[in-house]
Backbone:
């Protein structure tokens, strides 16, 4: 693990159970650690206090990703099933990373299959409310990492996502329901848009294989 600590996969896999049993933190501290952050503009960060949260194949999941140089790891815990999955990787820029491997293992462990986006897609009456530019926090991300959500010239009835200065058409998005989309290339990822009380879109949240990863504020 980063920070000079060392652990085996078995060590990490036990941590969620130790936390739930109260052997590391109190029950109240664990609940506090899981709370999302709500911002003044009604956008949300689902990071908690050092915990990535979300849902995968309909099941709640929490844990974290990490790494340094060419070492990467993922710990994912599914509390409703009592399943803890840990993946270590020691290759950089490979086609499959620790989080993608964890997702494949989780589908088997949860007895689920990858989402068929063509079948799950729901018709939406006004996709234009989501279109626009979504910026990340400037102290962490380059302005070029801002996301653009919009139709493309060949497909005006569907939204696509791309980075601000990208020349590509972007990645096709499928609307699932409840202000939630999935990208064509990664059917288990989710993009959730935050809507304020006035019905205006104020931001989005990215979930990779169930894990909250980042948020974007709508300009």
Residues:
């Amino acid at each position: 693990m980063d920070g000079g600590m060392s652990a085996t996969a078995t060590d990490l896999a036990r941590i969620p159970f130790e936390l739930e049993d109260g052997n590391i933190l109190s029950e109240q501290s664990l609940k506090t650690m899981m709370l999302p952050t709500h911002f003044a503009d009604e956008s949300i960060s689902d990071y908690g206090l050092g915990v990535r949260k979300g849902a995968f194949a309909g099941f709640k999941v929490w844990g974290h990703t990490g790494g340094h140089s060419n070492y990467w790891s993922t710990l994912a815990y599914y509390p409703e099933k009592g399943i803890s999955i840990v993946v270590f990787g020691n290759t950089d820029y490979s086609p499959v990373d620790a989080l993608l491997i964890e997702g494949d293992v989780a589908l088997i462990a949860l007895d689920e299959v990858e989402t068929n986006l063509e079948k799950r897609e729901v018709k939406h009456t006004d996709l234009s409310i989501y279109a626009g530019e979504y910026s990340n926090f400037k102290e962490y991300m380059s302005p070029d990492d801002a996301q653009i959500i919009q139709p493309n010239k060949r497909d005006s009835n569907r939204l696509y996502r791309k980075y601000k200065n990208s020349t590509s058409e972007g990645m096709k998005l499928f609307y699932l329901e409840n202000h939630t989309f999935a990208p064509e290339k990664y059917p288990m990822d989710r993009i959730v848009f935050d809507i304020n009380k006035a019905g205006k879109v104020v931001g989005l949240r990215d979930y990779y294989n169930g894990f909250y990863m980042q948020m974007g504020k709508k300009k």
